[in-house]
Design brief:
The protein is an all-alpha fold. The chain has a domain of about 210 residues. The protein is about 75% helix and about 0% strand. It has 16 helices and two strands. A two-stranded antiparallel ribbon has the order 1-2. The radius of gyration is 20 Å and the shape is globular. The relative contact order is 0.19.
Length: about 350
């Protein structure tokens, strides 16, 4: 099997053989990085407007969910808005009509996203590359049409308005975006932890093998399609969890949540931060959400022009995205081989 299955992830260099101080240093650095990320999540609503902080957290989980599929399975989906938006509508409807506490409403939306993803995944994963992307986009557009036409349930073009925040009668959480952020943050962190566990599990290593050399994975007895369907469903569930939290945070669900532009935006966030790193999606969400908020606050109307220009600049200057490029630079500084070079070298040695 490809040597890439022995790495911590496609976004990190392989651990030094034999362990020792270098391996200990990497382990300590990983824990310090996780601690820094947790601190950033906790202080975020203190330094920026709490609703914007909540948007960053939700979009970050959405990008991590897509990266699980794109970076580790090699499948580019242009239909993930179906899971983000479908979950948003389900979470909004359960909160409106059943009065569920928002964590349960968001989890209900995530469950719906996973149920929706299963048949889509079964029909899509037999394709790859642009064909997979177009099939997922087609299914997402079908859901967009259904949501738009089913006005009695979804509100059509008017969307779902007045989605309430229920949280066991705690008024501070239900009325104040600052406290809502901290009540919703555990859901976001749980989703990110689950994605991390998937990547650093035997399942994740087999997933990378199916991405790098599916023919060899099949020869070794792995059911490539089954692994791809499973990761597709997991990715959809995490995207749905993010979409449910986002919808309840805003108190409104619009057609924009199931539009193809939403799928394009999350792809932008993932590529901008760095594919196959998990952390890259978080970085991409921070950059784009803050940039959009600042431009909107200033009254600038051509937000897409600016974000598109930033995306082009990053792709041209940072081939592996912001986080991937920084990680490789730090690896070189420590005298380690960057992940991309390590993978290429390993594949080259196996081809001799």
């Amino acid at each position: 099997m490809s040597t890439t299955t022995e790495t911590d992830s496609p976004g990190t260099a392989p651990a030094p053989a034999g362990g020792g101080p270098a391996l200990l240093g990497r382990t300590r650095g990983r824990w310090l990085l996780l601690a820094a990320g947790l601190v950033l999540a906790l202080v975020l609503p203190w330094v920026i407007y709490p609703p914007v902080a909540m948007d960053i957290a939700a979009w970050a989980l959405f990008a991590v969910a897509l990266d699980l599929l794109l970076g580790y399975a090699g499948l580019l989906s242009f239909g993930h808005a179906a899971f983000w938006g479908g979950s948003a509508y389900v979470a909004g409807l359960t909160a409106l009509h059943w009065g569920l506490p928002f964590p349960l409403a968001a989890l209900a939306g995530a469950g719906f996203a996973m149920l929706l993803a299963w048949p889509i995944g079964v029909l899509s994963v037999r394709r790859s590359g642009i064909y997979f992307a177009m099939v997922t986009l087609a299914f997402a557009q079908m859901l967009y049409f259904i949501v738009n036409q089913w006005r009695g349930l979804t509100g059509g073009e008017n969307g779902l308005q007045g989605v309430p925040v229920h949280f066991f009668g705690l008024e501070a959480v239900e009325t104040d975006a600052f406290f809502f952020y901290y009540a919703a943050l555990p859901l976001i962190l749980l989703g990110m932890w689950f994605a991390w566990r998937v990547v650093h599990s035997p399942f994740g290593r087999v997933l990378v093998a199916t991405r790098d050399n599916p023919a060899r994975a099949r020869a070794l007895g792995y059911d490539v399609e089954r692994y791809r369907i499973l990761v597709f469903v997991i990715s959809a569930g995490l995207a749905g969890l993010a979409g449910g939290v986002f919808a309840i945070s805003h108190g409104f669900v619009s057609l924009q949540e199931v539009a193809w532009q939403t799928s394009g935006k999350v792809v932008l966030l993932t590529v901008l931060g760095g594919i196959g790193t998990l952390w890259g999606g978080i970085v991409g969400a921070i950059v784009i959400v803050i940039l959009e908020d600042q431009l909107a606050s200033s009254g600038f109307e051509g937000i897409g022009i600016i974000t598109g220009s930033v995306f082009i600049a990053v792709v041209l200057l940072f081939r592996r995205g912001i986080w991937g490029t920084v990680s490789d630079a730090l690896a070189r500084r420590r005298g380690e081989r960057p992940a991309a070079e390590a993978v290429s070298a390993a594949d080259g040695e196996e081809g001799l």
